[in-house]
Specification:
Blueprint (H helix, E strand, L loop, with lengths): L1 H15 L4 H30 L1 H5 L3 E5 L5 H9 L3 E14 L2 E10 L9 E4 L7 E2 L8 E5 H7 L6 E4 L2 E12 L6 H4 L2 E5 L3 H4 L9 E7 L3 H12 L6 E5 L5 H49 L4 H38 L13 H26 L16 H22 L2 H32 L5 H12 L1 H34 L8 E6 L4 H10 L8 E11 L2 E2 L8 H8 L2 E5 L7 E6 L8 E4 H7 L6 E6 L2 E13 L10 E3 L10 E6 L7 H9 L4 E4 H39 L2 H13 L4 H39 L8 H22 L7 H8 L1
Parallel strand pairs: 3-9, 6-8, 15-20, 17-19
Antiparallel strand pairs: 1-10, 1-11, 2-3, 2-7, 2-10, 4-5, 4-8, 6-9, 7-8, 12-21, 12-22, 13-14, 13-15, 13-18, 13-21, 16-19, 17-20, 18-19
Helix pairs in contact: 1-10, 2-9, 2-10, 2-11, 2-20, 9-11, 9-12, 9-15, 9-20, 10-11, 10-20, 11-12, 12-13, 13-14, 13-15, 13-22, 14-22, 15-20, 15-22, 15-23, 16-19, 20-23, 21-24, 22-23
């Protein structure tokens, strides 16, 4: 107990003296960044568990891209379960001259089995539980759709071939979802009216759901087991364990980005902690030597300082968790509405996690230097060179690096992400170290020909090779973080925005029946607008390759599994579609065959000559792959993964699809099209992309919010790097002034040293930011991003200016300090 009290008194003394300020700040930043993400994701996880059945609209949901087979309903009756069906599809709604694409949801009486629907008598008026579904001939519009159509309760709107009265404003649906349909304005109607709209046509993008609920868990489990054993293509089960899979996908991806930002802050905080603790140990070696002379044993010294650092770690952990708890409210304000339901209070696990992170960083990066304090020899009071870094301390630093690696993998909750980050930083350390070591040696030789002041500064870097190397590495990491958060991020966004040409197709027309093509062409001619190409679209499932049945379980990658399980949109034509380029094989319209997009071929392991079998409306269609195509997806044209030669799919019922570019001011053409053919679905891709970008912007703001911790950590690293050799620099300046050096010479020495450090670190950071930016663009975003000289120039300039300025502000007082005072303070 006495030892712990002594450690506490030492901690209070060192904090007042400012000895541990940077170390405490670095740990608080690391814990705050992680705990803020932990608190928010814990709230989302708890909310998904609590709201699971409301998010599903039942206890179990069967989802299908075709009408629900009758035997699923028969089995629900047999098990004594409640059930309701619902259907969703995108289509056009109109009111007067106003048209808008809406997500139509058709429901049955008693919907939802779990959760609630709320309606209001008008826009922005108080809502209340609906307690019913729309009556026959009535629809409910959400606020966005009502505003777009300028239709309010009591007005009539047109939906397909039928007119409906607006009965209320739809304000809330617990099972709305987070997919393409949820991005569109919502319309709810009675399922009994769906047939009158004539919206269900071949090729319609309708999804069907069977919601089930029951109080007997055994019967629900029995139904789930029965259903899983007979699921067909295009059918899936959503349960309380995987409730709202699309929402989980979004939150998991967001969490990965947030964790990546937190990992960057942790790495930088670890570097700052190592620098700060190294300086702390250097300043306490002499005091420990005196204590050894007065009878203190090595275990006592090590225990006192270990207790001090343990208390510091707990203090930083608590402070970081408190700060993280406050920050997660900001995350909730930025992206909480994407979840779609109120989030519960967070649990205590993020607190325990934050405390563990603080202690691991402390043990891994602050404790290794303490070995020197515990083993300092008594002779150091006479010989200052004793007590230098030994092999045992170097080994403990290796253990600290391993601890950090394990910590990053735990934070990432993903071996791939954790390995990529740790491997990337390890590679950066090695490359930065090799380049910096060679550059420092060159600067030492160059210093002999420089002016006297600069010669002293450059020679000082060569005299302190390892401290200088550590400074350069730390500064390079900090500046890399700054460049990634500014220049490279902006270049990536510009590359993404520039990937879509200005005249890319922005309107798609779906569900076109063959007999509607001539009237549509006439509408285009009447508007003096070139008629686009109409391409057939046939739904089909890939069932076999070279006679072997295709199953999702045959593939390891998630995307390949989804592709193997999904229903494809097939097409056929006389020639290669516009915007497509044959890269393997040849297009021969006289030979039955399929042309496959190269990405699909790579995902599913398909090659020229493979025989594909598709199930098209129950009819098998089989032909070899005769060509592989490259598609320009950025053109936004109608594109198909698989295109057949003419005649191969003639027996199938086909709807048609087209796309075209509609310049601003020509919206009257869309009104003419929908007035002539109200059942068509016109997708304004620009509007949908705007909505998606709005959601992505929310996520980016949240990620930047967490990245701000990395930004602060980068600044702390820079300060720690400059402070790490402050005492050596003060001693050298005092000696030089004692030997007669002038102030202008010392000023030149300091400026030369800081400028060389900053310039070298900035150039390395520019190289690192370029490399990381290219890797992220190439492997993650699939963008044609080319590294530029700008990060190198800005990095070198910013590094030179920032480091020189910060270093000069921190050391200019040394030039006014008498040499004897400096030597006595450091004695």
């Amino acid at each position: 107990m006495n030892g712990l009290m002594m450690s506490w008194r030492m901690l209070r003394r060192d904090l007042r003296a400012g000895e541990l300020g940077l170390l405490l700040l670095a740990l608080v930043i690391a814990v705050a960044s992680l705990s803020s993400v932990g608190f928010f994701t814990d709230r989302v996880g708890q909310g998904l568990k609590r709201q699971a059945n409301q998010l599903l609209g039942g206890d179990l949901v069967l989802v299908s891209d075709h009408p629900i087979p009758a035997d699923y309903i028969s089995e629900a009756r047999k098990q004594g379960l409640d059930w309701r069906e619902s259907s969703t599809l995108p289509t056009m709604a109109s009111h007067g001259e106003q048209f808008d694409l809406a997500a139509v949801k058709a429901v049955e009486e008693g919907h939802p089995l779990r959760g609630e629907v709320r309606i209001a008598p008008g826009i922005s008026q108080p809502d209340q539980p609906a307690g019913r579904i729309p009556a026959r001939g009535e629809v409910w519009l959400d606020e966005r759709l009502a505003g777009d159509l300028r239709a309010y309760p009591g007005d009539e709107i047109r939906l397909g071939a039928h007119r409906f009265r607006v009965g209320a404003i739809l304000s809330y649906e617990s099972d709305r979802g987070m997919n393409f349909f949820s991005l569109l304005p919502r319309l709810m109607m009675n399922r009994a009216d769906l047939a009158a709209t004539q919206l269900i046509q071949p090729g319609s993008r309708a999804m069907y759901r069977l919601h089930l609920a029951g109080e007997n868990n055994a019967r629900l489990e029995a139904y789930e087991t029965w259903a899983r054993n007979r699921l067909g293509r295009g059918e899936s089960l959503e349960t309380l364990d995987n409730a709202r899979p699309e929402l989980r996908t979004i939150t998991e991806r967001t969490e990965r980005f947030l964790r990546f930002a937190a990992m960057l802050a942790v790495v930088l905080a670890a570097v700052a902690a190592g620098l700060a603790s190294r300086r702390f140990v250097e300043r306490h070696l002499d005091g420990c030597a005196v204590m050894r002379c007065l009878g203190a044993r090595q275990p006592q010294l090590l225990g006192l300082f270990a207790g001090e650092f343990l208390l510091l770690g707990l203090m930083a952990g608590v402070a970081g968790c408190v700060l993280g708890f406050g920050v997660q409210f900001g995350l909730n304000a930025l992206i909480g509405d994407l979840v779609g339901f109120p989030l519960p209070a967070p649990g205590y696990w993020p607190v325990l996690h934050g405390l563990a992170v603080s202690l691991v960083l402390m043990l891994g990066f602050a404790m290794p230097p303490l070995i020197r304090l515990g083993r300092v020899p008594t002779l150091r009071v006479l010989r200052r060179e004793l007590g230098s870094v030994g092999l045992s301390e170097s080994l403990v630093w290796g253990v600290g690096a391993l601890a950090l690696t394990g910590l990053l993998v735990v934070i990432a909750q993903d071996w791939t992400l954790g390995g990529a980050v740790t491997g990337g930083f390890a590679l950066a350390f090695v490359l930065f170290g090799l380049v910096a070591r060679a550059a420092l040696a060159g600067l030492g030789r160059f210093g002999g020909s420089a002016a006297s002041g600069w010669r002293y500064g450059l020679s000082a870097l060569a005299r302190r090779p390892w401290p200088s190397l550590i400074q350069v590495l730390a500064l390079a990491l900090g500046i890399t973080a700054l460049l990634l958060l500014t220049l490279v991020r902006g270049d990536l966004l510009a590359s993404w925005q520039g990937s879509t040409p200005p005249d890319a197709h922005n309107r798609f027309i779906l569900n076109i029946q063959p007999e509607q093509i001539p009237p549509l062409q006439e509408v285009f001619r009447a508007a003096q607008y070139p008629a686009p190409a109409f391409q057939p679209m046939i739904r089909g499932r890939l069932t076999a390759v070279n006679g072997k049945l295709v199953k999702g379980s045959d593939f390891t990658e998630e995307r390949a599994k989804r592709l193997a399980e999904r229903e494809f949109n097939l097409s056929q034509g006389e020639q290669v579609p516009e915007g497509n380029r044959i890269i393997q094989g040849a297009w021969d319209k006289a030979q039955p065959g399929f042309s496959v997009e190269q990405g699909l071929a790579a995902q599913l392991g398909l090659k020229l000559g493979d025989v594909l079998r598709f199930d098209v409306a129950g009819v098998p269609v089989e032909a070899p792959i005769t060509s592989v195509r490259n598609l320009d997806w950025s053109s936004m044209r109608v594109n198909f993964f698989v295109v057949a030669t003419p005649g191969l799919l003639d027996a199938a019922n086909a709807s048609y699809i087209t796309s075209f570019y509609l310049p601003p001011g020509r919206e009257a053409l869309i009104r003419s099209i929908l007035a002539a053919q109200p059942n068509l679905t016109v997708v304004d891709v620009g509007a949908v992309i705007t909505q998606v970008r709005g959601m992505i912007e929310q996520l980016i703001k949240a990620i930047q919010f967490v990245f701000s911790f990395a930004l602060v950590a980068g600044v702390v690293v820079m300060l720690g790097a400059l402070q790490s050799t402050h005492d050596e620099r003060e001693r050298e300046l005092a000696i030089l002034r004692t030997l007669g050096a002038r102030n202008y010479q010392l000023r030149g020495a300091l400026l030369g040293e800081f400028a060389a450090l900053g310039l070298l670190a900035g150039l390395l950071a520019g190289l690192g930011a370029n490399g990381i930016g290219w890797a992220v663009a190439h492997w993650v975003f699939k963008l044609d991003y080319m590294p530029s000289l700008l990060p190198l120039l800005v990095g070198g300039l910013a590094g030179g200016v920032l480091v020189t300025g910060a270093g000069w502000l921190a050391t200019r007082g040394l030039l006014r300090r008498p040499p004897l005072a400096s030597l006595r303070a450091l004695a």
